[in-house]
Amino acid sequence: MEAPQALDYRKFRLRLLNTPAYSHVKLLLFWPLFGLLFAFVERVGVTDVYTPVHIALDDVIPFCEWFVFPYLFWFVFLVGMLAYTFFWEVDGFRQMMWFIILTYSITMLIYFLFPTCQELRPQHFPRDNVLTRFMARFYAFDTNTNVCPSIHVIGAVACMAAGWHSRRFGTRLWRTVFTVITVLICLSTVFLKQHSALDVFAALPLCVGGWWLVYRSRWAKNFAQPR
Length: 227
Description:
Strand content: under 5%
Distance between the termini: 26 Å
């Protein structure tokens, strides 16, 4: 397996933004655009009426504060995988970013057209400890709207897909590690009552479609090439 080589960004200049070596940097523009849109739907809102998301499975899943750790690790997972591919595997960065752009854009469209919320958060925690106190504060900060499909799940799968197709991490061992991390993150969303299980199930078809288009279809190579 060919060892990935770091791209030397010391040579980067804005005039080189459209060159094959650095055109992928433009994909980073998606993040501020997405952040503004997400802040709008979360803080300003597109409606006063949200459809609650709930299925029977939610009622048998207990709250478990220990899932705080994989839930928060999502941020490290996402930023870490983006940073690694950005510096070491640019083709993988392009593919990961296109996976995110496609799936997140569709998710935002769904949030605009079909606003949802969840009403699963416990009124009283079953235990009093540092983790439940943290979740109480987290609930106060994080709204319970725009939940279906789950961006947390989609982002975790994006990292897993990038890892599975990485030249460095594409071994059986690393694929297993990435898969376990992704499963734990997905479980954390429902055990912390941040999402309904339906939000997870709704995210999976988007992930499968994004994975097929970016990594497996006859157009897949285009997503790894400079534009």
